[in-house]
Amino acid sequence: MADPTGASIRIDDADLRKLLGQLAASAQDMTGLMEQLAAQVEFDTQRRFETQTDPDGNPWPPSLRALAENGETLTDTARLRQSITSRAGRTEFEVGTNVVYAAIHQFGGTVHRQARQQTLYWHHAGNTGSAAWRASRTFGDWKFAKKSRANYSEVHTVKAHDVTMPARPFLGLAESGMAVLGEIARDWLAGAGGLGAAS
After folding, report:
1. Pairing of strands 116-123, 143-144
2. In percent, how much of the chain has pLDDT > 90?
3. pLDDT of 9 over the 60 cut
4. Which of 21, 38, 42, 104 could form a disulfide with 88 if both were Cys (CB 3.0 to 4.6 A apart)?
5. Are 74 and 81 in contact (CB under 8 A)?
6. What does the alpha-carbon distance between residue 167 and residue 105 come to, in Å, rounded to a whole number?
7. Phi, psi of 128 (to 5 degrees)
8. What's 53's DSSP letter?
9. Cα–Cα distance between 19 and 193 in angstroms, integer?
10. 122 beta partners
11. How confident is the model at residue 70 (pLDDT cuts 50, 70, 90)?
12. CA–CA separation, 20 vs 152, rounded Å?
């Protein structure tokens, strides 16, 4: 750098140029970073099925099945939860599911159900095979149950109808989630530049 007095200052920027070169090379292939970010988002998504909350921490509206069985919403067969996967590339990543009915749960909407025959299952503490029970048919203590836990069932004709599904977002990021990804990215860039973990 030239000085008005005629003196000069020499700056050795070899380390800086080396760092910039490493960051530029890393920016061309950030697969390692994308894999870390994808893993974090996939983990957060899986946790939502445990906490029964959306990305902002708001509780999902409970499903009728979950209320009837004292179970968990969106976790009847766990197919949706187990289908959450991630994919990482050089400059991007994806987290999602290939389950067809995932969208209606994520965004909500109206589903048209055709008329059909449906078997309903209940559990009752009494002896459902006794003549006294069949004569009284007291339903006060009945609870809907899964087939494996039921001791009574009936086949009903269900008329065609529309069902409105509330949104229960399980995919997405809140500000807190973005902050975590930012920390991961800063640590990765610091490592790529040979600086060690960011403080």
Report:
1. antiparallel
2. 32
3. no
4. 38
5. yes
6. 6
7. -70, -10
8. B
9. 5
10. 144, 152
11. confident
12. 72
Higher pLDDT, 146 or 72: 72
Compute, in degrees rounded to 10, the torsion defined by CA atoms 65, 67, 72, 77: -20
- Burial (CB count within 10 angstroms: exposed 0-12, middle 13-18, buried 19+), residue 188: buried
Output the DSSP codes for 58-126.
PBPPPPHHHHHHT--TT-SS-HHHHT-EEEE-SS-EEEE---TTHHHHHH-EEEEE--EEEEEEEE-SS
- pTM for the model stands at 0.65
pLDDT 10s digits, 20-34: 566 666 667 788 888
Written as six digits, the tokens of 43 are 């983990």
CB-based contact 138:127 (threshold 8 Å): no
Q: For residues 142 and 124, is the Cβ–Cβ distance under 8 A?
A: yes
**What are residue 8's DSSP bridge partners?**
2
Alpha carbons 33 and 45: distance in angstroms, whole number:
18
CA gap 78, 55 in Å, rounded: 19
CA distance 128 to 69: 20
Confirm if 105 and 74 have CB atoms less than 8 A apart: yes
Task: Give the Å distances, CA to CA, from 124 to 65, 135, 139, 140, 153.
Answer: 17, 15, 8, 9, 11
3 membership: H or E segment, kind and range:
none
